[in-house]
Design goal:
- By secondary structure, this protein is mostly beta strands.
- It folds into two domains: 4-42 and 446-666, no CATH class; 157-431, no CATH class.
- The strands form nine sheets. Strands 8, 9, 15, 19, 20, 22 and 23 form a seven-stranded mixed β-sheet that branches.
- It is elongated.
């Protein structure tokens, strides 16, 4: 029920009437003067959303909630539905209208897309809300390496000598700026860590955003275990010889850069690597006994909140030499994730809060190393489960590594996107593997669904005027709109539940669909009475139908319809003292909404009516919609709405024509 459908007098409402009856347009023109005097009693408003995540080539799905969709334990409730959902354009931007409750002062912007802030609170100010990505200027202690290999000296710190646990980092950033929090650093080396921005061109053929888009399409939240391979192809093998200019040449060494890409899991995890000579026949115990070099001490959703790149270090065949920034040929690099440092899974010992020091993090790494480690060599994992996947992205020439962070307890969903990294190598052909799974360039259709909910209440003594307890007929309506990645509506599911009857008359509830109606499933025709093309009676007697639910499914074909320009309006009404097939009946609609062609339109403006509003008292409609509200406590029988104990803030809202007390229906007393 967007306002434009009844405020723009030239709007065409797609209803079909018999030739002897007035059309909607005739009715609107004849009642224009009355309509201009009527407060519409709307509880909705349109707010402009300006959104830019800062990526080029990345189409991002996002959702808007009017309350926090996560509980205090970080669990998203299945009952929490977004009031708005859409996709950004290909450059992660969106500028459009979002329909909100008129009282909303802030919303929650949520996205499951990789490398996007998971949940943001946005203020609603002056009809606008916005999030604009700001590149972070972080001291990176040097850029990534270029040119010749160099020796950079001992640069590992000891986490635990007995467990052979070491770290490339020795601190977090000391900045209090939240945008650079949890940036690992190494004071002893000038160029271990660097950062890249959202709009970085990571190769000649790909931006970072384009890479993320391909990974998003390849790794949906499903079981991706089909992409698992054996350890030989999951790990990175530094070749001894490569083909260069049609000649076989020896590899002198390979620079390996590891970049943190994104996290979608809830655990706080630490990630590192180990290495061994290619061809070694190692058991699981042998893998566990190798020295481990931790690179990222803490990774989870939004931590770190920029892409950090690390140059991996080689510490000699016996792991006791000064580190150098390249790996000799003939070595294999494997990966380790130490999962759930905050013990979230066990719901205990939550001592790893957002202000934890690096020593606290290292203590947790050491404590959980033997029980909660996930290896890329599946031989070292519980029941030899695959711990991660390794994929090739041909366009960017990067290697993608994805972990399943609950492999250690076999409780994961095996989506392998809890933590994502990418690897680049110089020379790049030194780690090529023709048997490694490839990320496809496409991804098929992706869908999101928003749900607009309402409670609609009616007073049935029209046009004479009633007691205005607004409880003669009360229904709840859900409009679930499914949109694809091109912001095309593919399906709308409208569900109506009769929740209350306070009348003695036999009242029916109906809907008129306006705009692009789509195709209604024929096998559902028995669930409701079709009166005209887009006009339906869903409940023929609310008195006996309380608790009943009807669902209408509309589909819009392969092409769909444009969500950003489509106005999905519906016109709810009650037919008073309903008799099936009878025309010339009494109906009650929302203020200023047109009647159907089956109504006796000559009654409009008679008695106390001024287009479904009491013209004598002015503040009482015969129907209203409470947007984004369900389970509303109805007004006591025979008590006028706005009286003591019956939503008293209503009076100020109605008298001010919606300027004050916009949340009146949330306050019974």
């Amino acid at each position: 029920m967007k306002k434009r459908i009844y405020l723009i007098l030239t709007a065409i409402i797609a209803l079909t009437f018999s030739s002897c009856e007035k059309s909607d347009n005739d009715f609107i023109e004849e009642n224009n003067d009355a309509k201009s005097e009527v407060f519409d009693f709307k509880t909705r408003t349109e707010v402009n959303l300006i959104l830019n995540y800062g990526f080029e080539g990345y189409s991002v799905p996002f959702e808007i909630f009017t309350s926090n969709p996560f509980d205090e334990n970080g669990i998203r409730s299945a009952d929490t539905k977004p009031i708005f959902a859409a996709f950004t354009d290909k450059n992660s931007s969106f500028n459009g209208k979002v329909e909100l409750p008129a009282h909303a002062k802030k919303v929650y912007l949520y996205s499951e897309a990789f490398a996007i802030p998971r949940l943001l609170e946005l203020d609603v100010t002056n009809g606008k809300m916005e999030y604009i990505y700001q590149p972070t200027n972080v001291s990176t202690r040097g850029a990534s390496y270029q040119g010749e290999c160099v020796t950079i000296g001992t640069n590992k710190t000891v986490i635990d000598q007995g467990n052979k646990l070491f770290a490339l980092y020795d601190d977090y950033s000391t900045s209090n700026n939240s945008t650079v929090k949890y940036t690992p650093s190494n004071r002893h080396v000038s160029a271990i860590y660097s950062t890249i921005s959202n709009n970085t061109q990571i190769s000649a053929n790909s931006t970072l955003g384009e890479l993320l888009n391909r990974v998003k399409n390849a790794l949906k939240k499903t079981d991706n275990s089909r992409l698992c391979t054996d350890s030989e192809h999951t790990n990175l093998r530094i070749a001894t010889h490569i083909m260069e200019d049609n000649e076989i040449v020896e590899v002198e060494g390979a620079h390996i850069d590891l970049t943190y890409l994104a996290a979608s899991g809830e655990f706080h995890n630490a990630m590192g690597y180990y290495y061994y000579k290619t061809g070694s026949e190692l058991t699981g115990d042998d893998i566990k006994a190798l020295p481990k070099f931790m690179v990222f001490p803490r990774t989870t959703v939004n931590i770190p909140n920029q892409r950090i790149k690390a140059r991996l270090q080689f510490f000699g065949e016996d792991y006791n030499e000064d580190g150098i920034d390249h790996f000799p040929p003939g070595y294999t690099i494997g990966w380790i994730l130490i999962a759930d440092l905050a013990n979230l899974f066990g719901n205990s010992n939550k001592d790893l809060d957002t202000n934890a020091s690096i020593s606290t993090v290292n203590r947790k790494i050491n404590e959980l190393y033997k029980t909660q480690s996930v290896y890329s060599n599946k031989e070292a994992n519980k029941n030899q489960y695959h711990g991660c996947i390794t994929l090739s992205d041909e366009l960017s020439e990067k290697i993608i590594i994805g972990f399943e962070d609950q492999t250690f307890n076999d409780k994961g969903d095996y989506s392998y996107e809890d933590i994502l990294f990418y690897v680049e190598c110089d020379p790049k052909s030194a780690i090529e593997d023709p048997d490694r799974p490839i990320i496809p360039p496409g991804g098929g259709e992706t869908l999101v669904t928003e749900t607009k909910s309402s409670t609609i209440a009616f007073e049935d003594i029209w046009p004479s005027g009633g007691d205005y307890d607004m409880n003669d007929v009360v229904v709840e309506l859900d409009n679930a709109i499914t949109i694809n990645q091109d912001n095309k509506i593919k399906k709308i599911v409208t569900t109506v539940k009769a929740v209350h009857n306070g009348a003695t008359l036999t009242n029916a509830f109906g809907l008129v669909f306006n705009g692009a109606v789509g195709t209604i499933k024929e096998d559902e025709s028995n669930y409701f009475t079709k009166e005209e093309n887009n006009q339906f009676i869903l409940f023929d007697n609310i008195l006996k139908d309380v608790g009943g639910t009807f669902t209408i499914v509309r589909t819009f074909g392969e092409e769909g319809i444009d969500k950003l320009t489509y106005v999905d309006t519906f016109n709810p009404f009650i037919a008073i003292s309903y008799k099936q097939g009878e025309k010339g009946r009494k109906e009650v609609h929302l203020p200023t909404y047109p009647p159907t062609s089956w109504m006796d339109q000559s009654l409009v403006g008679t008695g106390k009516d001024l287009f479904y509003v009491d013209k004598e008292e002015g503040i009482y409609p015969f129907a209203f919609e409470l947007f984004d509200i369900k389970n509303w406590e109805v007004v006591t029988e025979k008590s006028k709405i706005g009286s003591e104990g019956e939503y008293p803030k209503y009076n100020g809202w109605a008298e001010s024509k919606g300027a004050t007390n916009k949340d009146w229906y949330l306050h019974r007393n």
